Each structure stands twice: as C-alpha cells, then as structure tokens.
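User: Just a sanity check before I run the rest of the batch. Below are the structure tokens for the first item. I only need the designed sequence back.
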C-alpha cells in the first residue's frame, strides 16, 4: 500500500500545480492540514471544506497566480510519505518571485489520507516525525 500512498501524494501535487480544483475532492471530511510550524501565520485546519475555503480565500489575497508545487523527493515511510518539494509564486503586491524548498509529511490510515504536516526546511524534524533515521 505504501507505493500507492507515494503515487497518491504525487497526484495531489500535480493537481495543485495545475490549479485543478479536483484536488479538493481527494481530501476526506476529517482531513487535518497542520501548518503550525510555519514561522509566519501558523495554523491548523480541520476538515476538507475548511482547507478548501482557506486556500481559495488566501491565495488570491497574497499571490498573483497559482503556486508551483514540484516534488523533488517523495520518500515511502509506510503509512506516511515524506515529501521534499519546491514551491513558489509571485507576490501580488510586490511582484517579487518567491521560492522555497520545504518538507511535508503526509499521513495515511487504513489507506486513506488523514493529514498533511508542514516542516519548512527542518529536515531533521521531518525525518524524525516520519520515523526515518538519517
């Protein structure tokens, strides 16, 4: 099942990268979107509807277009997928291009996606949370 999880996460990033709203249909109602480790405006959202509403509300306020989502590495960790991604966009007000490489941990339970956690550039914490030793 773990390779299926990797492919599922790859599909989510592809849909996000294309700006395809079908991505929201892949999230279960009890999905947790944990960005509490963000340095600016940390948050945790619960439920697919809350995630969709926040994404669609904040995106046009902050960014000039759809963000880029490019997985550089997807690591199979059993019921979890650790992702190292390159993401970026252009600021709406400033016009400045912003790019970041960050770690995300996707958690599955009984083959269903349950959580997306953001770790920023903290590779060690992301590996630890995924149960992977360096």
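Assistant: Here's the designed sequence for the first item:
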């Amino acid at each position: 099942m773990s390779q299926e999880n990797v492919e599922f996460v790859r599909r989510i990033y592809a849909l996000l990268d294309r700006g395809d709203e079908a991505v929201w249909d892949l999230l279960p109602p009890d999905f947790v979107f944990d960005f509490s480790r963000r340095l600016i405006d940390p948050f945790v959202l619960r439920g697919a509807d809350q995630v969709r509403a926040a994404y669609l509300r904040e995106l046009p306020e902050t960014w000039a277009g759809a963000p880029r989502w490019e997985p550089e590495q997807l690591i199979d960790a059993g019921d979890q997928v650790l992702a190292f991604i390159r993401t970026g966009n252009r600021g709406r007000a400033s016009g400045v291009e912003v790019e970041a490489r960050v770690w995300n941990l996707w958690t599955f339970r009984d083959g269903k996606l349950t959580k997306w956690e953001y770790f920023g550039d903290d590779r060690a914490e992301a590996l630890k949370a995924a149960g992977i030793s360096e």
